[in-house]
C-alpha cells in the first residue's frame, strides 16, 4: 500500500500528542492526589486539571482504577530509574540519592501509607515500594552485605532497610525540622558508624 504524502509526519505528530496528553493526565492526577484523598478525586476533576475531556480520559484508562494503576506504573518506573543510579558502595552518593528521592517523593509515599488499608490498589503500590526499597538496599550496600555472614548479615540488612526508610527521613526532616543538607548528614553519619564497625 502506498502511503499518501505527509502521512508518516502526521503519524509521528499524532503519537507525540498522545504522549503529551498522557503525561498531562498523570501529572494532573499526582497533583490532585497531593491535595485530596483518593476517594475525593473524580475523573472529571483530573480531566479538568489536565485540560482534556472526561471522554478522552475514560477512553484511555477505562476507569479511575485504571488511571490509578497507570499512575502507579509510571511513578514506580520513574522512582526505580532515579534510585538505581546510586553508585554501589559509595556511601555519600547513596545517601544523596536517597535524600533526593525522598525530597521528591517522600510526602507521596507517606500519603500512600495512610491510605493503603482503605484502598487495595494503594496498598499494592506500598508493598511494591517496600519490596523495591529492600532490593535497592541489597544492591547499593552489596559490598558491606557480602562481607557479613549468617545472622550478622540478616541483622545488618534489617538495620540498613530501617535507617534508609521513608519513616526515618520523616522523623529527621519533618518532625525534627532538619533541612535537606543536615538530614543527609544525619543519615550518612549513622550509616557510616554502622558500616565501619568491626564485625563481631
Question: How would you explain this protein's 3D organization?
Answer:
By secondary structure, this protein is mainly alpha-helical. It has helices spanning 7-35, 43-50, 54-61, 64-83, 91-115, 120-140, 142-147, 150-163, 166-175, 180-196. Helix 1 crosses helix 2 (43-50), helix 5 (91-115) packs antiparallel against helix 6 and helix 5 (91-115) packs across helix 10. The model has no long low-confidence stretch (mean pLDDT 91).
Ends apart, CA distance between termini: 74 Å
Question: What CATH architecture label of the largest domain applies?
Answer: Orthogonal Bundle
User: What is the oligomeric state here?
Assistant: single chain
Mean pLDDT: 91
**Uncertain residue segments:** none
The helix/strand series, from N terminus to C terminus, equals: HHHHHHHHHH
Please state the CA-atom Rg, rounded to the nearest Å: 21 Å
Number-wise, the strands total 0
Amino acid at each position: 500500500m502506498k502511503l499518501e504524502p505527509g502521512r508518516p509526519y502526521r503519524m509521528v505528530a499524532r503519537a507525540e500528542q498522545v504522549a503529551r496528553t498522557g503525561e498531562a493526565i498523570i501529572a494532573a492526577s499526582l497533583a490532585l492526589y497531593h491535595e485530596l484523598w483518593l476517594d475525593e478525586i473524580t475523573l472529571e476533576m483530573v480531566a479538568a486539571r489536565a485540560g482534556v475531556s472526561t471522554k478522552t480520559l475514560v477512553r484511555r484508562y477505562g476507569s479511575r482504577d485504571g488511571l490509578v494503576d497507570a499512575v502507579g506504573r509510571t511513578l514506580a518506573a520513574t522512582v526505580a530509574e532515579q534510585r538505581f543510579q546510586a553508585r554501589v558502595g559509595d556511601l555519600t552518593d547513596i545517601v544523596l540519592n536517597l535524600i533526593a528521592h525522598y525530597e521528591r517523593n517522600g510526602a507521596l509515599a507517606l500519603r500512600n501509607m495512610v491510605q493503603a488499608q482503605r484502598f487495595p490498589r494503594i496498598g499494592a503500590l506500598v508493598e511494591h515500594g517496600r519490596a523495591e526499597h529492600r532490593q535497592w538496599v541489597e544492591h547499593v550496600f552489596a559490598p558491606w552485605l557480602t562481607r557479613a555472614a549468617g545472622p550478622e548479615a540478616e541483622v545488618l540488612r534489617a538495620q540498613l532497610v530501617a535507617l534508609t526508610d521513608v519513616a526515618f527521613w520523616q522523623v529527621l526532616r519533618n518532625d525534627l525540622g532538619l533541612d535537606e543538607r543536615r538530614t543527609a548528614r544525619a543519615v550518612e553519619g549513622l550509616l557510616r558508624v554502622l558500616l565501619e564497625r568491626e564485625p563481631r
